[in-house]
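#struct-help
A.M.: can someone run this one for me? Single chain, 118 residues.
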Amino acid sequence: MRRNRLKEAAAASQVAVLVLAPFSSCPRVSFDNVRLGSAAVRRLTVQNPGGKRLQVALGGVDKAREAGFEVDHAVFSLGPRQEATIRIGWVPREGGNAAEKINVRCVSRTLWCVQRAY
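D.P.: on it. Structure tokens below:
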């Protein structure tokens, strides 16, 4: 029991990073084992390494909401060489595995994706 709590605490403290640059890898945000009726929160840091301001919008959020997922900011702006951390929460509504994909859009085109495995 104690090992599970320690493992959950370690997972919750990890932050996935998405760099908004060509050829950067798509991070996975994983919730591992979350008990039915429990809530878990993970963080995703989105970085803009470029020299221009970017408008960022997360696509697929409505579908993810149906599966019990929430994000605290679906649309935001990043200045040059700036980063923002968003929180992604999940409350499982039924037993078993769940997976959702969230697209990250900037300036009206899809640039990167974030895959979530649960």
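A.M.: thanks! The domain at 2-117 is CATH 2.60.40.10 (Immunoglobulin-like).
D.P.: also worth noting: Helices lie at 2-13, 61-66.
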